[in-house]
Design a protein that fits this description.
Structural class: mainly beta
Order of helices and strands: HEEEEEEEEEE
Shape: globular
Largest sheet: 6 strands, antiparallel
Distance between the termini: 42 Å
Helix content: under 10%
Length: 124
Protein backbone atom coordinates (compact mmCIF):
# COMPACT_ATOMS: atom_id res chain seq x y z
CA UNK A 1 0.00 0.00 0.00
CA UNK A 2 1.47 3.35 -1.05
CA UNK A 3 1.53 6.24 1.38
CA UNK A 4 0.71 9.54 -0.32
CA UNK A 5 3.37 12.27 -0.25
CA UNK A 6 6.07 9.95 1.11
CA UNK A 7 9.20 9.51 -0.99
CA UNK A 8 10.84 6.26 0.08
CA UNK A 9 14.11 7.23 -1.63
CA UNK A 10 14.45 10.13 0.83
CA UNK A 11 13.90 7.74 3.75
CA UNK A 12 16.06 4.86 2.52
CA UNK A 13 19.11 6.93 1.61
CA UNK A 14 22.50 7.06 3.33
CA UNK A 15 23.09 10.54 4.76
CA UNK A 16 26.42 11.81 6.02
CA UNK A 17 27.61 15.24 7.09
CA UNK A 18 30.63 16.73 5.31
CA UNK A 19 32.54 20.01 5.38
CA UNK A 20 32.87 21.86 2.10
CA UNK A 21 36.48 22.31 0.99
CA UNK A 22 38.27 25.44 -0.24
CA UNK A 23 37.36 24.52 -3.83
CA UNK A 24 33.60 24.55 -3.00
CA UNK A 25 33.53 20.74 -3.38
CA UNK A 26 32.55 17.88 -1.10
CA UNK A 27 34.31 14.51 -1.08
CA UNK A 28 32.07 11.48 -0.68
CA UNK A 29 32.96 7.82 -1.42
CA UNK A 30 35.93 8.76 -3.64
CA UNK A 31 33.73 11.21 -5.59
CA UNK A 32 34.28 14.96 -5.71
CA UNK A 33 30.91 16.75 -5.84
CA UNK A 34 31.14 20.41 -6.85
CA UNK A 35 28.43 22.67 -5.45
CA UNK A 36 26.86 24.81 -8.20
CA UNK A 37 26.29 28.57 -7.93
CA UNK A 38 23.55 29.45 -5.49
CA UNK A 39 21.56 32.58 -4.62
CA UNK A 40 21.76 31.54 -0.93
CA UNK A 41 25.47 32.25 -0.54
CA UNK A 42 28.45 33.35 -2.61
CA UNK A 43 30.21 30.09 -1.68
CA UNK A 44 29.90 27.25 0.82
CA UNK A 45 33.59 26.94 1.84
CA UNK A 46 33.95 25.48 5.36
CA UNK A 47 30.17 25.01 5.63
CA UNK A 48 28.72 21.78 7.01
CA UNK A 49 26.38 20.13 4.49
CA UNK A 50 24.63 16.76 4.28
CA UNK A 51 25.36 14.40 1.41
CA UNK A 52 22.73 11.81 0.58
CA UNK A 53 23.35 8.66 -1.42
CA UNK A 54 20.16 7.14 -2.79
CA UNK A 55 19.48 3.44 -3.48
CA UNK A 56 19.88 3.99 -7.24
CA UNK A 57 23.43 5.32 -6.69
CA UNK A 58 22.66 9.01 -7.24
CA UNK A 59 23.69 11.72 -4.75
CA UNK A 60 22.39 15.04 -3.45
CA UNK A 61 23.87 17.78 -1.28
CA UNK A 62 21.64 19.57 1.23
CA UNK A 63 22.22 22.76 3.21
CA UNK A 64 19.53 22.63 5.88
CA UNK A 65 16.27 21.77 4.08
CA UNK A 66 17.53 23.10 0.72
CA UNK A 67 18.95 20.90 -2.02
CA UNK A 68 22.07 22.51 -3.50
CA UNK A 69 22.56 19.96 -6.25
CA UNK A 70 21.80 16.45 -7.46
CA UNK A 71 24.42 14.20 -9.03
CA UNK A 72 24.46 10.96 -11.01
CA UNK A 73 26.37 7.80 -10.02
CA UNK A 74 29.64 9.25 -11.36
CA UNK A 75 29.30 12.55 -9.50
CA UNK A 76 28.23 14.64 -12.52
CA UNK A 77 25.81 17.46 -11.68
CA UNK A 78 22.27 16.70 -12.83
CA UNK A 79 20.66 19.87 -14.21
CA UNK A 80 17.13 18.40 -14.50
CA UNK A 81 16.02 19.56 -11.07
CA UNK A 82 16.30 23.13 -9.92
CA UNK A 83 18.84 23.83 -7.19
CA UNK A 84 17.40 25.10 -3.92
CA UNK A 85 14.40 22.80 -3.97
CA UNK A 86 13.20 21.87 -0.54
CA UNK A 87 13.74 18.38 0.80
CA UNK A 88 10.09 18.28 1.78
CA UNK A 89 8.60 19.35 -1.55
CA UNK A 90 9.06 17.86 -5.00
CA UNK A 91 10.63 20.04 -7.67
CA UNK A 92 8.27 22.10 -9.79
CA UNK A 93 7.75 21.16 -13.40
CA UNK A 94 9.09 23.20 -16.30
CA UNK A 95 7.84 26.77 -16.23
CA UNK A 96 7.80 28.75 -19.43
CA UNK A 97 9.09 32.32 -19.40
CA UNK A 98 5.70 33.78 -20.33
CA UNK A 99 4.15 32.61 -17.08
CA UNK A 100 7.16 33.37 -14.87
CA UNK A 101 6.52 35.61 -11.89
CA UNK A 102 8.13 39.01 -11.63
CA UNK A 103 8.68 41.20 -8.62
CA UNK A 104 7.24 44.69 -8.48
CA UNK A 105 8.40 47.19 -5.85
CA UNK A 106 5.63 48.45 -3.58
CA UNK A 107 5.66 51.18 -0.95
CA UNK A 108 5.58 50.08 2.68
CA UNK A 109 4.45 52.88 5.00
CA UNK A 110 4.29 50.75 8.16
CA UNK A 111 7.70 51.94 9.44
CA UNK A 112 8.20 55.28 11.19
CA UNK A 113 11.66 55.85 9.71
CA UNK A 114 10.29 56.69 6.29
CA UNK A 115 9.32 54.83 3.17
CA UNK A 116 10.74 51.36 2.65
CA UNK A 117 10.48 49.30 -0.49
CA UNK A 118 9.27 45.74 -0.29
CA UNK A 119 8.69 43.37 -3.16
CA UNK A 120 5.39 41.79 -3.94
CA UNK A 121 5.21 38.91 -6.40
CA UNK A 122 2.80 39.53 -9.26
CA UNK A 123 2.26 37.50 -12.42
CA UNK A 124 3.51 39.27 -15.52
Amino acid sequence: MAIPSVDLAEILCVQEERQVGNDNCVSFNRLKLQIPESPLRAHFVKTRVKVRQYPDGTHAIFYGPRCLGRYDKKGVLNEERKPLESARRPACGNVDKASALTTVPQENKNRRSGLLMCYQIRPS
